[in-house]
Amino acid sequence: MRFTTFCMLSGLLTAVSAHFQLQYPVPRGIFVEDNEPTFCDGYNTAASNRSEFPLSGGFISINSEHPQFTVGVQLSTLQNPTSFQNFSTAVNFFQASGEGPFCFPIDLTAAGASSGANATLQIIFDGGDGQLYQCADVIVSNNFNIPSDVSCTNATTSSSTTTSGSSAPSATSPTSSSGSASSSQTASSASSLSILSSVSLLSVMGAAVVALL
Ligand SMILES: *[C@@H]1O[C@H](CO)[C@@H](O)[C@H](O)[C@H]1NC(C)=O
Ligand SMILES: *[C@@H]1O[C@H](CO)[C@@H](O)[C@H](O)[C@H]1NC(C)=O
Ligand SMILES: *[C@@H]1O[C@H](CO)[C@@H](O)[C@H](O)[C@H]1NC(C)=O
Ligand SMILES: *[C@@H]1O[C@H](CO)[C@@H](O)[C@H](O)[C@H]1NC(C)=O
Ligand SMILES: [Cu+2]
Q1: CATH number of the domain where residue 141 is located
Q2: 83, 149, 191, 199 — which has fewest CB within 10 A?
Q3: Is there a domain that residue 166 lies in?
């Protein structure tokens, strides 16, 4: 009974507001929930302020708002990749679970990157409401270690299984690269609005859970 109730509620939450946020490396731009189903969360131009990222022994840290998800990472070594076709696989898609922090290793050597190269990482996440994308523009370095104060934890310790790269990114190009400045401005106000509405929705749902239990 409780289980059924929980499933119904979490199903609702999933349908309405849940996504994922890239925590590390620093994403290309601030998170825009409504744009996350599109190439690089709607940011179609590489950032000029790149952060360093280790050639090997790196990790990707995300916050998942979905209890079950599939995640993978693509890499491009173009200066300004503009299409999914400009990327190749760096971390095969795998399934994982747990709402909250999730952190997994990535080795760019295996993906063909070299030290000193500019690269873009595109994290692809599917928690049941379609594929979502966030990008980070980096400088690959073989003598950079991720600072120890960068958090790398998993919400749950349950094991994950590897899937055979079946959920490849859809072959859509970003709509247009012109007018990105104005669209990112409206996008950031839309983002605060949707954060507000997510928060109020969550409190309503929280009250409902308390009432039902
Ligand atoms: C890397 O990108 C920065 C700006 O994003 C550029 O100034 C620099 O020349 C690029 N380096 C290489 C090796 O292409
Ligand atoms: C690049 O600059 C933007 C805008 O100031 C900022 O939000 C972002 O965190 C910076 N990225 C890095 C990797 O420092
Ligand atoms: C990047 O992708 C676009 C669109 O598929 C393609 O036209 C272009 O040739 C690619 N660039 C490189 C350098 O592969
Ligand atoms: C989180 O789980 C993934 C998948 O099981 C694993 O590869 C990774 O090492 C875990 N991260 C931490 C910080 O334990
Ligand atoms: Cu979602």
Answers
A1: 2.60.40.10
A2: 149
A3: yes
Pocket of ligand 2 contains residue 139 by CB under 6 Å: no
Strand, helix or coil for residue 154: coil
Atom index in ligand 2 nearest the CA of residue 30 equals: 7
What is the distance between the alpha carbons of residues 22 and 26, in angstroms, rounded to a whole number? 7
3-class secondary-structure state, position 61: strand
Domain total of the chain? 1
Query: What is the Å distance from ligand 5's center to 113 Cα?
Result: 30
In tens digits, the chain (213 residues) has pLDDT values of 344 434 344 444 434 457 999 999 999 999 999 999 999 999 999 999 999 999 999 999 999 999 999 999 999 999 999 999 999 999 999 999 999 999 999 999 989 899 999 999 999 999 999 999 999 999 999 999 999 999 999 998 755 555 544 444 444 434 333 333 333 333 333 333 333 334 343 343 434 433 433
